[in-house]
Design brief:
The complex is a heterodimer.
Chain A (H helix, E strand, L loop, with lengths): L38 H19 L10 H21 L7 H18 L11 H23 L17 H40 L6 H38 L4
Helix pairs in contact in A: 1-2, 1-3, 2-3, 2-6, 3-6, 4-5, 4-6, 5-6
Chain B lengths: L1 H8 L4 H10 L11 H132 L6 H13 L1
Classes of the chains: A mainly alpha, B mainly alpha.
């Protein structure tokens, strides 16, 4: 990972902005088998631990007047709960734990990834694609189970003129199947881009004259990344809610 | 992986670096050899998170929030009760104050009337006493006056007899008395 410090030698700058995303075994060297504990595994585990600390330890006192940690737990709970309720309605609340799971995992992984030298599991398509596909498949199956063939009405825009409907149906169908792609690439792309840009600025810091500018730029980017970490978790969650709403109430 | 670790050793040469990256996937994200590993651990992490949330965290936080909502509702109801009671108490206090004031005025008026009556009785009694005393005094005065006139008559007769005797005449008692009486009437 931290190759930037010795990356600049006479002759030119060498950037390795993508090295930070390498999945490596956490203990020792060697190949990465499916069961190997890697840096990705370690930071995922930390994300689970952070979720546990915030939500379980934070609320362990069950006080009527919340402590600071309990306020954070209640805030997170209320934030996602209200989102699910507002978008999916009352019947969507059955799926609140699943959506909360996604939100807490993504937001914890994102924020932990901002720790210098940390690894960000959510910067990998492997992670976001699995989550997006899980949402996509669940929502599609749920749509057919709940509504039967009426779920296909999602693609048949009844309010449009009859002549346009087949064309719209094709567009809707394509956009429906593009959902998991955009859903996953948005999250991983944003996180990856931010981290890579910070690394690039860090590479510039090797040049003495530019280094103050570089440090300022890193600071600014870091602030932006803090924002992006939360916003992308929020966007992923809210899109999940929107897709779930389509499954529960198809039709426009 | 082998080529990735190698790239550190070749880092100083940009050309080599680029060439190498061109030949291998530039993004570790697209290194599909690690996908199985990440997916396996991700599913494990999500399942763990799901159980932590659905078994412990969410029911607990939901219960705390519901309890707080209940407490707040109860407190507001209690506060409204107390407020109503306070208004009631104020009304009762005002009423008691008005009653007490009216009663006080009654008592004052009663006392004034009583005192007036007593005073009237005392005054009339005193007037009567004064009248009796005045009558007595008048009688005493008239008695004294009468007795004085009587005495004056006696003294005048005696004096007249003495004067006549001293002047050598013989005074007839009856004549003197008649003369004095006649003179005193005049």
């Amino acid at each position: 990972m931290a190759t930037e410090t010795n990356g600049a030698e006479e002759g030119g700058l060498v950037f390795h902005p993508m090295d930070q995303f390498e999945v490596q075994p956490f203990f020792g060297d060697g190949a990465v088998a499916w069961y190997t504990i890697t840096n990705s595994t370690f930071w995922m585990a930390l994300a689970v631990l952070a979720t546990f600390v915030i939500l379980v330890l934070g609320s362990s006192k069950r006080s009527i007047i919340p402590t600071r940690m309990q306020s954070v737990a209640e805030l997170a709970y209320g934030f996602v709960y209200k989102m699910v309720e507002d978008i999916c309605g009352k019947e969507g609340l059955k799926y609140f734990p699943y959506i909360m799971t996604l939100f807490m995992f993504i937001v914890c992984a994102n924020f932990l990834g901002l720790i210098p030298t940390a690894f960000t599991p959510t910067s990998h398509f492997a992670v976001t694609v699995v989550m997006a596909m899980a949402v996509f498949l669940t929502v599609t199956i749920l749509g057919f189970v709940k509504n039967g063939t009426a779920f296909l009405g999602l693609f048949w825009v009844a309010s449009a003129p009859l002549a346009l409907r087949p064309i719209l149906a094709i567009i809707e169908l394509i956009s429906y199947f593009v959902r998991p792609v955009s859903h996953s690439i948005r999250l991983a792309g944003n996180v990856m881009a931010g981290h890579a840009v910070i690394k690039v600025f860090a590479g510039f810091a090797a040049i003495t004259i530019i280094s103050p500018v570089s440090v300022v730029a890193i600071t600014a980017m870091y602030g932006l990344e803090v924002l992006v970490s939360f916003i992308q978790a929020y966007v992923f969650t809210i899109l999940t809610c929107v897709y779930l709403k389509d499954a529960l109430h198809p039709g426009h | 992986m082998a080529t990735e670790t190698q790239s550190d050793g070749l880092a100083d040469a940009i050309g080599v670096d680029l060439a190498e990256h061109a030949s291998t996937p530039g993004m570790p994200q697209l290194d599909f050899s690690t996908w199985g590993n990440q997916i396996f651990w991700l599913i494990l992490a999500l399942i763990a998170t799901y159980f932590i949330l659905s078994r412990v965290a969410l029911p607990r936080i939901g219960a705390v929030l519901a309890e707080r909502q209940g407490t707040i509702t109860n407190d507001i109801a209690a506060a409204e009760d107390l407020k109503a009671k306070a208004v009631e108490a104020e009304a009762a206090y005002d009423k008691a104050l008005v009653d007490a004031r009216a009663e006080a005025q009654n008592i004052v008026a009663q006392a004034k009337a009583d005192i007036q009556a007593d005073l009237d009785v005392a005054i009339s009694k005193a007037d009567a006493e004064i009248a009796v005393k005045a009558a007595e005094s008048e009688k005493a005065i008239s008695d004294i006056r009468a007795s004085a006139v009587e005495n004056v008559k006696v003294v005048a007769k005696d004096t007249a007899k003495e004067i006549i005797a001293a002047m050598g005449g013989k005074a007839d008692a009856k004549t003197v008395t008649a003369a004095v009486t006649a003179r005193m009437k005049g």
